[in-house]
Specification:
The protein has one domain: Rieske [2Fe-2S] iron-sulphur domain (Rieske Iron-sulfur Protein, 3-layer Sandwich). It contains no helices and ten strands. It starts with about 25 loop residues before the first strand and ends with a strand. The chain is globular. With about 120 residues, it is mainly β. β6 and β7 form a beta hairpin. It binds FE2/S2 (inorganic) cluster.
Length: about 120
Amino acid sequence: MGHGPDGGGGQAGTWNVLKRVSSWIDVVTEDELPQGEVHVVDLEGIEVAVFNIAGQYYAIEDVCTHDGSEISTGCLYDHVIECPRHGARFDVRTGEVLEPPAYEPVQTFKVRIENGMIQVGDDR
Ligand code: FES
C-alpha cells in the first residue's frame, strides 16, 4: 500500500478573521507602463500615482504634502519625484520627503501584479 498522506500545510481556514477587506484596483497592464513612466488611477476617491522604477512598481498618493499639487506631473529622477510647484522631492518607494518645502511624507500604497495587470491596494 504505501499510500502517503497528501502534502499537508494547507490553510483550509473556515475562520477568516476579516479585520478589513482591502480592495485592489486595476491600473494598467505592465506593457502599458514602461520604465520611468507614471500612471494615475482613482482609488476610492484618492488619486494614486503608480510608477515603474527599473521594473519595480510603486504607488503614492498624487498630492504633494506641501500645498496639494499633483506630484505625478513633476520630473522623475530615478526613484525621486520632484513636485512641479515648489520643488519638494519625495522618494516614490517610501513616500519619504527628501527636499523641502514639504516636510510630511506622502501616503504609499501597495502594488501587485495579477496576470500582467498592475493593481494598487488600499492599505489605510
Ligand atoms: S505644492 Fe509641492 S512643493 Fe509646494
